[in-house]
């Protein structure tokens, strides 16, 4: 996969994606949004890819939006987007388009935050499933200090990751904080030496690729994420029942049990591209209304 703002490497089922604008601390641009969106489309379509690791080139992970255009960087009105009948078209937040795409991904995503992750640099990691940090990583939900407000659907994701009190503290102050504070609050699950960060992320991804059913992981990922908004555990029970009924009679469940009893590594055959159940997706995707 060749991209203008990304580097990609696929090995043993693990796709390592590197944000690649090191001279700008991998600042987020429209091109990076397009590249990442296309990448996740390809990830979902490629059965060879079992898990994704996202990191940054150089000393930054992603320093937020590229501000090189100055004070008008976020001024959508100045862009003059209008429909044919002269009405202004309500713009959509680019960071949100990305996080919604990651949220719908069928493969697990691991963030390996190697340096500064500020603004959209950190909010894009929130729908990723596991976040690891280098000792040199720094985080900041700096929107209020830029005269903005949280984006990338982070007002939904962040409180679910760290709780409302810590989320509000970080958003209201807009301060930048280190990896240990991120670890204490649950924003990241491990803090590692810089040279150990990506190998550890790849190790976790490789464990997924080597030992689990791709269809089981795809279903499990969506079950856990979608149930964050459920009103009652009965909603989970309904989906659980369908999934267990479906998978229980399929090849991967037989292989999982037989390989366990025979004390050998499993050889799962089901593919995300063709073996997802007919009832997937079981949710209705909300329409965007500007």
Question: What can be said about this structure in brief?
Answer:
The protein is an alpha/beta fold and 290 residues long. It has 10 helices and 10 strands.
Protein architecture, described:
This protein has 290 residues and is of the alpha/beta class. The protein has helices at residues 30-45, 94-103, 120-123, 154-162, 164-173, 179-185, 194-211, 214-226, 233-248, 251-261, and strands at 6-11, 14-19, 51-56, 60-62, 109-113, 116-118, 130-134, 138-140, 176-178, 190-192. A hairpin with a 2-residue loop joins strand 1 (6-11) and strand 2 (14-19). The chain is globular.
Number of DSSP E strands: 10
By secondary-structure content and strand pairing, the structural class works out as alpha/beta
Percent of residues in β-strands: 5-15%
Helix content: 25-40%
- Rounded Rg: 20 Å
Q: Mind telling me which CATH architecture of the largest domain this is? A: Alpha-Beta Complex
Identify the strand order in the major beta sheet: 1-2-3-5-7-10
User: If you average the pLDDT, what whole number results?
Assistant: 93
Name the CATH class of the largest domain.
Alpha Beta
Principal-axes shape call: globular
* H-E order: EEHEEHEEHEEHHEHEHHHH
Separation of termini? 33 Å
Query: What is the fold named in CATH at topology level of the largest domain?
Result: 2-enoyl-CoA Hydratase, Chain A, domain 1
User: What's the name of the CATH homologous superfamily of the largest domain?
Assistant: 2-enoyl-CoA Hydratase, Chain A, domain 1
Q: Mind summarizing the main beta sheet? A: 6 strands, mixed
Uncertain parts: 78-83
- Count structural domains: 2
Number of discrete helical segments: 10
């Amino acid at each position: 996969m060749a991209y203008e703002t990304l580097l990609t490497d696929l090995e043993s089922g693990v796709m390592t994606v590197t944000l690649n604008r090191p001279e700008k601390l991998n600042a987020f641009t429209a091109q990076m949004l397009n590249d990442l969106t296309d990448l996740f489309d390809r990830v979902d379509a490629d059965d060879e890819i079992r898990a994704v690791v996202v990191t940054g080139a150089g000393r930054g992970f992603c320093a937020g939006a590229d501000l090189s255009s100055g004070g008008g960087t976020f001024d959508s009105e100045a862009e003059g987007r209008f429909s044919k009948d002269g009405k202004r078209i309500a713009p959509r937040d680019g960071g949100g388009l990305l996080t919604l795409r990651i949220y719908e991904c069928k493969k697990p995503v691991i963030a390996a935050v190697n340096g500064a992750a500020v603004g959209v640099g950190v909010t894009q990691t929130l729908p990723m499933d596991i976040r690891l940090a280098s000792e040199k990583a720094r985080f900041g939900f700096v929107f209020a200090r830029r005269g903005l407000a949280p984006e990338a659907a982070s007002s939904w994701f962040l409180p679910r990751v760290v709780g409302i009190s810590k989320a509000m503290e970080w958003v209201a102050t807009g301060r930048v904080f280190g990896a240990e504070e991120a670890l204490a609050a649950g924003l990241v699950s491990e803090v590692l030496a810089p040279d150990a960060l990506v190998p550890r992320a790849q190790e976790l991804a490789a464990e997924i690729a080597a030992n689990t059913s791709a269809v089981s992981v795809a279903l499990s990922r969506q079950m856990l994420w979608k149930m964050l908004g459920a009103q009652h555990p009965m909603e989970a029970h309904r989906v659980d029942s369908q999934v267990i009924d479906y998978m229980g009679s399929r090849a991967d469940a037989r292989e999982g049990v037989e390989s366990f009893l025979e004390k050998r590594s499993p050889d799962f055959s089901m593919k995300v591209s063709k073996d997802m159940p007919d009832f997937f997706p079981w949710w209705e995707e909300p329409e965007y209304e500007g």
